């Protein structure tokens, strides 16, 4: 049975609570006190765990030095103050909850000017603007899934497949193992890769690729790992979902479509971007929702993927967006254009099913492993979550608000992914940004 702190509501979800960090009380903040996502901050030459609160970043190590924590919360804070969050992610949910609850109590306003922890603000807080953030953890394994039925069917049709869905798609969450060494935190340029592809005239060429694409995805960081040859049961999988981030699995489609025999290779492994803040599964408890309903006639999940609890609340109601700005738009002072608006709750498979299936053969997941949802495309055209779908694989250009057109991403184009979860009766929480700009091939 999953620990109640991973899926159930508790005092840290109380929408009426405000923080003495005033910016955390703004209606449009991604990081109210009910969120408290974790990341890695570099401060005075040292890297350590941190928490986003309003427009500030809380240094967990500094809060430790200020005596903020005791008992289980102190032990968890010691793990979370390390240069990576792996040891913290490996803790059982009861321990990670203890730190979240302690942070919540220290940051909440008591209605007076004498909030006890406010005196430590100068020691523990730094402005988010200008803060240097790093990958939240050491990622030893990265698996990207293919769980949107709409994305998969559209791609199959664009490839001219008689059956656009792979035969296994409705029986298991399909995935491939990606490259961890080229995963970067939001911000650095994405250099257009060179590669080999087959041109329209049938010739095989090598050079800077044309068909450059983004992929709007949701990423999961694994918490507690599992021993090799010990699968994670679907009914217990909630204890293994530490938290979520935005993920842009940049794609060189020119390369991918030519080379893909065993699976994605050079078309995918040149750069993947993740947002710096990890929104915990506990923070997202209010936004759990029923798994996407399967169309009549689709096969029921096999026993290792079947769970009443997972079907009832295994999906997450998280709105996801992609925004594009070009060199021309920025030079003229125009803001970015939203080119996709979708929702993670439309995925055919839940993250619980992804993890359960991933380990079903005995594969051992490690704390901090990254699991991608795959492109989160919905049914509507506005919810297409990559350029390939929007342009029918480059056959039809899309038009931006300033009149520019795009079949694929051009040098200087910047993609910003955003996400938020909102529900009546609860504070809206967000993910920050996952940002990357296309730089010319070298």
Automatic annotation (TrEMBL):
Mg(2+) binds at residues 249, 268, 272. Substrate binds at residues 256, 375. Ca(2+) binds at residues 144, 215, 217, 249. Coiled coil: none annotated. It is an enzyme of class 3 (hydrolase). Keywords: Calcium, Hydrolase, Magnesium, Metal-binding, Phenylalanine catabolism, Tyrosine catabolism. Signal peptide: none annotated. Pathway: Amino-acid degradation; L-phenylalanine degradation; acetoacetate and fumarate from L-phenylalanine: step 6/6. Residues 34-136 form the Fumarylacetoacetase N-terminal domain. The active site is at 151 (proton acceptor). It comes from the Bacteria. GO terms for molecular function: fumarylacetoacetase activity; metal ion binding. Residues 158-438 form the Fumarylacetoacetase-like C-terminal domain. Its EC number is 3.7.1.2. GO terms for biological process: homogentisate catabolic process; L-phenylalanine catabolic process; L-tyrosine catabolic process. Its cofactor is Ca(2+); Mg(2+). This is fumarylacetoacetase. It comes from Pigmentiphaga litoralis. The lineage of its organism: Bacteria, Pseudomonadati, Pseudomonadota, Betaproteobacteria, Burkholderiales.
